[in-house]
């Protein structure tokens, strides 16, 4: 049940380009080139991927870290 409440909020934050943990804009994170697009590390330590074609953010998979 808890995940059903949190998932839409996290999707909304990612659509706005904000970290799902601290709410900081992902533009302020550390950007590193990555084959899938761009790897972004937030100040709170969460890692995201900005996909090349769509320019959408998503959480990085363990295999991408």
Question: Can you characterise this structure?
Answer:
There is one protein chain. By secondary structure, the chain is α+β, with helices and mostly antiparallel strands. The protein is 22% helix and 28% strand. The protein is built from 1 helix and 4 strands; from the N terminus they run H-E-E-E-E. A 4-stranded antiparallel β-sheet has the order 1-2-3-4, with no helix packed on it. The longest helix has 14 residues, at 2-15. The protein is globular and about 35 Å long.
Total discrete domains: 1
Low-confidence stretches: none
Mean pLDDT: 95
Helix content: 10-25%
Alpha-beta content class: alpha+beta
Query: Tell me, what's the shape?
Result: globular
Q: Using only CA atoms, what is the Rg?
A: 12 Å
- Report the strand count: 4
Q: How much strand?
A: 25-35%
Number of helices: 1
SSE series: HEEEE
What's the N-to-C terminus distance? Answer: 29 Å
Q: Tell me the strand order in the biggest sheet.
A: 1-2-3-4
Largest sheet: 4 strands, antiparallel
């Amino acid at each position: 049940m808890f995940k059903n409440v949190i998932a839409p909020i996290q999707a909304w934050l990612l659509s706005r380009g904000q970290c799902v943990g601290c709410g900081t804009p992902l533009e302020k994170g550390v950007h590193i080139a990555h084959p899938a697009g761009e790897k972004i590390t937030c100040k709170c330590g969460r890692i995201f991927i900005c996909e090349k074609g769509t320019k959408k953010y998503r959480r990085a998979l363990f295999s991408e870290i």
